[in-house]
Amino acid sequence: MENRLLDVAGPPALILMWSSAFIAGIIGVGAAPPMLVLFARFGIAGALLIAFALLTRAVWPRGRMLAHTLVAGLLMQMVQFGAFYTAMHEHVTAAVISLVQGLSPVVIAVFAGALGESVSARQWLGFGVGGVGVGLAVLDQPAFSLPGLLLCVVGLLGLSLGTVYQKRFTPAIDPRTGTALHIAVSAPFAGAMAWAGGDFSIADPARFAGSMVWMVLVNSIGAFLLLNTMLQRWDTTRVSRFFFAIPAVTAVMAWLAIGQPLRPLTIAGLAVGLLGLVLASRRAAAPEPERVPKPGPVAAGPHLAVGSQPQRV
Questions:
Q1: CA atoms of 145 and 91, how far apart (whole Å)
Q2: If exposure means fewest CB atoms within 10 Å of the residue's CB, which of 26, 90, 157, 296 is most exposed?
Q3: Pairwise CA distance, residues 228 & 10, whole Å
Q4: Is the confidence at residue 224, as pLDDT, over 90?
């Protein structure tokens, strides 16, 4: 029952929560410096997640597993969001950032071999079509700075490499402690960068507080608990393909919530990206099991059927 619920409700919930993070980020960065926003987000969410893991008596990693968990957390949290939030401060739109991030399935697929996972020709085609769609939509944006675009690429690499690293080195970690450590380890780094910047001014306390509540509860806790649970139970290519839908959902959210326009080529690019999602999500049909010929008469007595051990999917 639990696995069925994850199969049905998990993907749309992840897409909606992840997409809303771009809108909340734009609002937060508009009210305070990006590293201060990140420091507050990581600090509050990390403390809440650690308390939750302790109360539920989750298993904490130790030794080398702990070190790998911290590395994955820095990549997926500090590198990704540090770059994306700074890009927002450089006036890169939420739609552009989500569109660049939409290339993560392609980057992850490139490294999927390191995990021993197979990627079918149909899935590679889907990744390619999705990448073209993302590129079309990015080209249709009015204007953005080169530093902002480079920051988006850094954020993309942080998410993609962090996802692969986590699946490779910490596949069996408890999602509760894993998520708590990912976020908590990033808080001191964000705080140090905020301190180095020397700007702690909050221009709009109400908008800052509202965006912070959403980012902590929905984006940092809800989205990453769900993502880490999916990564624990599914392979990375299955999880990463859902990121193709995030640009389209983010663009619509940005249009409705903060008035960012939907341009014709952007819509076309998003449609191509969704086609890539459909192609990438379809696997080749599994071959039918080979028929075992019926054995001839044997003496009575217990025996084991050939191939009776079930295969793991």
A1: 8
A2: 296
A3: 11
A4: no
In the predicted structure, residue 312 carries a pLDDT above the cut 50: no
CA gap 133, 186 in Å, rounded: 32
Q: In whole angstroms, what is the distance from residue 306 CA to residue 64 CA?
A: 40
Q: Is 313 helix (H, G, I), strand (E, B) or coil?
A: coil
pLDDT in tens, 18-57: 899 999 999 999 999 999 999 999 999 999 999 999 999 9
| Res 265: pLDDT | 81
State whether residue 303 is helix, strand or coil.
coil
**Please, are residues 37 and 216 in contact by the beta-carbon 8 Å criterion?**
no
Q: Number of C-alpha atoms within 13 angstroms, CB side, residue 106?
A: 21
- Please provide the size of the chain in residues: 313
What's the first-to-final CA gap in the chain, in angstroms? Answer: 17
Burial status of residue 255 (CB atoms within 10 A of its CB: 0-12, 13-18, 19 or more)? middle
What CA–CA distance (Å, rounded) separates 226 from 171? 15
The CA distance from 233 to 230, in Å, is: 5
E-state strands within 125-205: none
H helices of 102-140, where? 104-110, 121-139
Q: Which amino acid is at 209?
A: A
The torsion angle over the Cα atoms of residues 56, 16, 83 and 81, rounded to 10 degrees, is -10
Residue 32 gets which letter from DSSP? S
Q: Are 213 and 69 in contact (CB under 8 A)?
A: no
Mean pLDDT along residues 166-172: 87
**231-263 per-position pLDDT tens digit:** 878 877 778 777 777 888 888 898 888 887 777
Fill in the amino acid letter for 28. G
pLDDT of residue 248: 80
CA distance 150 to 158: 12
Query: Distance of alpha carbon 236 from its chain centroid, rounded?
Result: 10
Q: The tokens of 102 are what?
A: 């939409």
State the Cα–Cα distance between residues 102 and 107, nearest whole angstrom.
Answer: 10
